[in-house]
UniProtKB/TrEMBL annotation:
Protein family per UniProt: Belongs to the IPP isomerase type 1 family.
Biochemical pathway: Isoprenoid biosynthesis; dimethylallyl diphosphate biosynthesis; dimethylallyl diphosphate from isopentenyl diphosphate: step 1/1
Catalytic reaction list: isopentenyl diphosphate = dimethylallyl diphosphate
GO-annotated biological processes: dimethylallyl diphosphate biosynthetic process; isopentenyl diphosphate biosynthetic process; steroid biosynthetic process
Organism of provenance: Syncephalis pseudoplumigaleata
Keyword Magnesium: yes
EC number, as in UniProt: 5.3.3.2
Transmembrane spans: none
Pfam hit, one: NUDIX
SUPFAM superfamilies in alphabetical order: Nudix
Domain Nudix hydrolase stretches: 59-209
Cofactor(s), names only, from the UniProt record: Mg(2+)
GO terms, molecular function: isopentenyl-diphosphate delta-isomerase activity; metal ion binding
Name of this chain's protein: isopentenyl-diphosphate Delta-isomerase
Length: 237
């Protein structure tokens, strides 16, 4: 599969003027298009990568999910802003986004490009200063490959790099991206999962997959993440 032949891309059929202006602008960013083995094969706009028509045709892009814990071992969560085009108002892990098709975020050695993108988005969404999240403190754990629809128009089809760090950070949230944050213990997160199962709150699909299958194992080894890391693995869902 190549980015040019994976599927037709009827972008003109979706008018971004109907959405928040800043979120529509961000849809112009260029995501990294990959094959199912996470090999880079091209680039497409964020809009192109997130249209369900293209996703159903096989278009796949690279992403990351950050799980930031404080020194007490609590996990920082965010609730996505209502302005978000995909999964608005859903609760999710600390930060979820995409490395972009630009030189510094294309570097694959030691996952450096993904880590740079993560630090960029931690600052953009949550106002966390770069110096509070040094690159060498961001630990790459594994990857997950999943597909999920947000609605009939938009969705996700990603190979998602899972990144974990433990740090004390200052927050200054960008309200166009994030409407709320909270730190949770394991028990509090389990309560949120039960609330989501009961339809009381919404959790993003990637966060649910990671939480149900992998997160609590990592949580037990925050001081020894190398013991649970699976750097060569791509978990398929």
């Amino acid at each position: 599969m190549s980015s040019s032949t994976a599927t037709a891309r009827p972008e003109a059929e979706v008018n971004l003027a109907n959405y928040d202006a800043e979120q529509a602008r961000l849809m112009e960013e260029r995501c990294i298009v990959i094959d199912e083995h996470d090999r880079r094969i091209g680039a497409e706009s964020k809009k192109t990568c997130h249209l369900m028509t293209n996703i159903d045709g096989g278009l796949l892009h690279r992403a990351f999910s950050v799980f930031l814990f404080d020194p007490q071992g609590r996990l920082l969560l965010q609730q996505r802003a209502d302005e978000k085009i995909t999964f608005p108002a859903y609760w999710t892990n600390t930060c979820c986004s995409h490395p972009l098709n630009k030189e510094d975020e294309l570097v694959e050695e030691n996952q450096l490009g993904v880590k740079r993108a993560a630090r960029r988005k931690l600052e953009h969404e949550l106002g966390i200063p770069f110096e509070q999240v040094p690159l060498d403190a961001i630990k790459y754990i594994t990857r997950i490959h999943y597909k999920a629809a947000s609605n009939d128009i938009w969705g996700e089809h990603e190979i998602d790099y899972v990144l974990i760090l433990q740090a004390t950070v200052d927050l200054n949230i960008n309200v166009n991206e994030v409407q709320s944050t909270r730190y949770v213990t394991r028990e509090e997160l389990q309560t949120m999962i039960e609330e989501a199962d009961a339809g009381k709150i919404k959790l993003t699909p990637w966060f649910k997959l990671i939480t149900n299958d992998l997160l609590f194992k990592w949580w037990d080894h925050l001081e020894q993440l190398d013991r649970v890391a699976e750097p060569e693995c791509i978990h398929r869902y």
